[in-house]
Amino acid sequence: MLSETKRDRAVVIGGSIDGLLSAKVLSAFFDEVVIVERDVIEEDAAPRKGVPQSPQPHILLAQGYRLLTAFFPDFAEALTGAGAVPIDWGKDFHYFIFGGWVATDAAGTSLKSFSCTRPLLETVIRQCVEGLGNVQRLSPYRVEALLGSAETVTGVQCRHVRDKGEVRSLLADLIVDTSGRSTNAPKWLDKLGAHRPTIETVDAGLGYASQRFKIPDGWQADWKVLLIAHRPPKHHRLGYLAQVENNELIATLGGYGWQYPPLDQRGFLQEAKKLLAAEFYDAIAQATPVSEIKAYRSTANKLHHYETLEQMPDGFIALGDSVCALCPAYGQGLTTSALSATVLRNWLAESPKRSQPLSVGAFQKNLVKEVMPAWRVATQSDSGFENVKGEKINETLLDRFLNGYMQRLMQKSHCDSELALRLARITHMVDSPLNLFHPNLVMKFF
Q: What was the pLDDT predicted at 349?
């Protein structure tokens, strides 16, 4: 007898973190979940060709961590066992902005997560997901097309990455595109005769350069994560340091306005000296490089407006960076991935039984509502730089007031740890941005 609550098969395009979290959710609603991944997946936590940002830092905000522990009850234990570094963001994070260091709380706070490399985090999540009995991975295969019609997507056609002659067709009740910034879904929809979404882009020309360092013996730093922030429109540079597994640091320099940091050792150190505070340079000057310097420059904010389509074919949805790819400087990506998986879970829980089609349009509308606050944070900040490409967000009178208000609060947080924690809770997406206007915060403005 067929289950009245589960459908037959779902296919996930892409086995990155977005795809893995989607597969976890789908496993509760489908008899079978197949992740189609183009990379060969190594057993150890190694960077993947299909994730070019792997060597760069990935910030797991407190809210993202809370959501992941809800999906995977043993998540903290698994990260700890893999060597990830526990972080108290109110105590262990040193943040330089608006001319000073934000106050920290020596007693500790509830804003906790972990710091680790992207490959380690992805490996831990993959092990949790692929341990599920009804989830399997098909790799290395690259999806080439959607099957079906403009009205209904019924599956995918994929080709083996190495044996080009091996082509497979996978039929499914639901196709989920989580292939990221490089998504070809709009082209695939176009070939079916379906509508394709418009794409909104805000590109401030940020480029990263990252290198790993061995932490020296006798290390005395009182931080685990350090950020020297950029500030539009004049301050184009940023520096980010994070302790990660294997007693190492990831050191990242960023340059906005296409002012990319150098990729040679001498130039990297000289660029570090130009930051607004000396702590970044002081840290890496006493540490030993253990990797090459890796660049990453695909940082434009991109929003695929699936929610505005008059009609989407049944059986197909998109989420993660395939819909909303954010500039990595704001550290929201992993948390929006977890939020998107939550939207997927809620949508499937509210959907009709297997004999009825899923309302994909409703999902895309729900998704964009969830990611829009993060989109506004990234695009409004990036629009503060000159020569932004794409649909630059023009500053309104209200924006000027809000920017001035935030700057005043951040400056006051240099000597007020309680205020710093309140602002951090908003940054970490634990509290709503509306909490900025709580009377206790408004009073600190004056």
A: 92
> Mean pLDDT, to the nearest integer, of 188-211?
96
**Residue with the two structure tokens 């050792």:** 265
Q: What is the pLDDT of residue 44?
A: 67
Q: Give the C-alpha distances (Å, rounded to integers) separating 215 from 25, 241, 271, 280.
A: 38, 12, 20, 13
Q: Cα–Cα distances in Å, from 168 out to 156, 179, 186?
A: 8, 18, 21
pLDDT at 397 over 70: yes
DSSP label at residue 166: -
Closest CA relative to residue 367, chosen from 308, 325, 307, 313: 307
Nearest Cα to Cα of residue 255 among 292, 206, 218, 288 = 206
Read off the pLDDT of residues 399-443 as tens digits, 9 standing for 90 and up.
888 888 889 999 999 999 999 999 999 999 999 988 888 887 788
Measure the CA–CA gap between 227 and 8, rounded to whole angstroms: 47
* Per-residue model confidence (pLDDT) at position 401: 86
Say if strands 7-13 and 174-177 run parallel, antiparallel, or are unpaired: parallel
What contacts 427, CB < 8 A, 6 or more positions away?
61
Closest CA to 121 of 214, 275, 242: 242
pLDDT of residue 45: 60
Please, are residues 433 and 372 in contact by the beta-carbon 8 Å criterion? no
Tell me the percentage of the chain whose pLDDT exceeds 90. Answer: 81
- DSSP-based three-state secondary structure for 368: helix
pLDDT in tens, 238-287: 999 999 999 999 999 999 999 999 999 999 999 999 999 999 999 999 99
Token reading at 221: 């730093």
**Structure tokens belonging to residue 385:** 């730089």
- How many angstroms separate the Cα of 245 from the Cα of each of 62, 64, 80, 114, 248? 19, 19, 10, 10, 6
The whole-angstrom distance between residue 237's C-alpha and the CA centroid of its chain comes to: 21
What mean pLDDT comes out for the span 2-16?
A: 78
Other CB atoms within a 10 A radius of the CB of residue 27 amount to 18
- Distance, CA of 335 to CA of 298 (rounded, Å): 19
Q: Strands, E, within 298-388: which ranges?
A: 301-304, 316-318, 324-325
CA distances from residue 187 to 13, 52, 297, 308, 345 in whole angstroms, order as listed: 15, 22, 24, 17, 27
State the greatest distance between any 2 C-alpha atoms of the chain, in Å, as a whole number: 69
Q: CB neighbours (10 Å) of residue 95?
A: 23
Q: For residues 134-142, give the mean pLDDT.
A: 96
Count how many residues are written for the chain. 446
Alpha carbon distance 258, 276 (integer Å):
19
Q: How far apart are CA 384 and CA 381, in angstroms?
A: 5
- DSSP code of 435? G
